[in-house]
Design brief:
401 residues, alpha+beta, Aminopeptidase, Nonspecific Lipid-transfer Protein, Chain A, 7-stranded mixed beta sheet, 10 helices, globular, binds coenzyme A, Putative acetyltransferase, NAcTrfase_Eis, transferase, aminoglycoside N-acetyltransferase activity, Acetyltransferase_Eis
């Protein structure tokens, strides 16, 4: 590897780092007004640059967040983003050096976990990240999508100017919800809701006997007809959160009832969202994709394992390997009453990315063993681990970053 200097970036370099990252994704630099919004999402100490001499050739960043884990506890988490290496510097170890520095800094600052969304599936496993949540994309044909029930409470539209505060405080109330959900940071709201594109979005609030209890942010691309080509009207759900099943159903029934819409589409929804069960004809809904959502990296394995709850299931000792944070290596005893380090012999040993994948309960150790991701040893021990790690709801993040 060429000599690289990895530095914590400050305000003087944020814009160059942002431009480098956008360039790596083949996007042009952000115009000034957009940059002023993006700048608010750079936190001191959380952006790193790789320098070859004085030249910035790669960057990574993270946002300060929190992760809900099975059982309802919440742990400090770094939401890793804006990862990019200049095209003339790739495959020379720049990302590896940045990852090494970032993981060390996260560990030292007390982040228990790190999470990211990957542009490609082959990048992050080597750094200890495993796919921990998945999402589905659905499309609903409005012509045949009759809901089984009417709106039970009330759904009202609110003006974009008033929406930011309303949806922000509602999100705070409904989250942390299921395992995998994360806290949003101010820069997230600035970039995703409180900006000029936010003004073209529609905001609807659900309420019931106890007041407001859910919201949806959506946009509609209207029907068009040009040169004999028809384009259907598509409503896209951007963000939908509900504190109760009633609020959730009301929001969907509202969306499916909006006139002059041919299709309702939603990406990034939980894989177990029961939308098809709300429809008289479930075939009005098509699942068009199921894909990885967030990749989870346990930065402090002991703290992470201790934070989550376990089901009854006897006990198991899991050995952990971690090339980047060797202090995580060792054996962990998991029982229904908690987890702790042990000097006992492990029932099986996994790389830290495998543990990250299984941690929130989205995939069973049994499935990972069957796929050859670790040597199972005794199938009974793996079955015990799966009983302990089992969850009721599929974990889901629901926040794009
Ligand atoms: C992805 C990216 C950051 C990798 O940076 P890099 O400096 O080339 O990575 P490294 O040289 O440190 O590679 C480390 C290892 O990962 C592998 N690797 C890196 N990127 C990979 C990719 N996209 N696909 C497959 N393998 C990849 C390398 O081959 C290398 O493997 P080795 O250790 O067996 O030799 C860089 O290619 C990039 O900026 N891509 C475009 C933007 C992007 O996708 N960013 C990520 C957003 S989530």
């Amino acid at each position: 590897m060429t000599d690289l200097d990895i530095r914590v970036l400050d305000d003087a370099h944020y814009r160059a780092a942002h431009t480098l990252f956008r360039g790596a994704l083949h996007h042009p630099p952000a115009p000034d007004d957009r940059w002023e919004i993006a700048r608010t999402s750079y936190d001191p100490g959380r952006a790193f640059g790789a320098f070859a001499g004085d030249e910035l050739v790669g960057t990574v960043q993270s946002f300060p967040s929190r992760l809900a884990v099975p059982g309802g506890a919440v742990v400090p988490m770094a939401a890793v983003s804006r990862v990019g290496v200049r095209a003339d510097w790739t495959r020379r170890g720049v990302l590896t050096a940045l990852q090494r520095a970032q993981l060390r800094a996260m560990r030292e600052s007390g982040d228990v976990a790190a999470s990211l969304r990957a542009s490609e599936g082959a990048i992050y496993e080597r750094f200890g990240y495993g796919v921990a949540t998945r999402v589905r994309e659905v499309r609903v044909k409005r012509a045949t999508a009759r809901s089984r029930q009417p709106i039970a409470g009330r759904v009202r539209l609110v003006e974009p100017a008033a929406a930011g505060d309303l949806v922000g405080s509602l999100f705070e109330r409904v989250s942390p919800g299921r395992a995998g959900t994360i806290a949003r940071w101010q820069g997230w709201w600035n970039l995703n809701v409180l900006h000029e594109e936010g003004a073209h979005q529609r905001y609807a609030i659900a309420s019931g006997p106890d007041g407001d209890d859910g919201y949806v942010v959506y946009k509609v691309t209207a029907y068009s007809y040009e040169n004999g080509v028809e384009k259907p009207a598509v409503l896209t759900v951007l963000d939908l959160w509900a504190a109760t099943p009633r609020a959730w159903a009301d929001l969907w029934v509202f969306l499916l009832g909006i006139d002059l819409v041919d299709e309702v589409g939603a990406e990034g929804r939980p894989v177990d969202e029961p939308l098809e069960w709300l429809l008289v004809d479930r075939r009005a809904l098509r699942v068009v994709d199921v894909m990885d959502e967030t990749w989870l990296r346990l930065v402090d394995v002991e703290a992470a394992l201790s934070a989550r709850a376990y089901r009854p299931g006897g006990s198991v000792v899991i050995g952990v390997r971690d090339r980047f944070l060797p202090e995580n290596e060792g054996s962990y005893l998991i029982t229904s009453s908690g987890a702790s380090r042990t000097t006992g012999e492990p029932d099986f040993v996994v790389d830290v990315d495998v543990l990250g994948a299984a941690y929130l309960g989205d995939v069973a150790f049994g499935a990972l063993a069957a796929a050859g991701r670790f040597a199972a040893g005794s199938p009974e021990a793996v079955a015990r681990a799966d009983a302990l790690f089992a969850v009721d709801q599929a974990p889901w993040c629901g926040t794009f970053f």
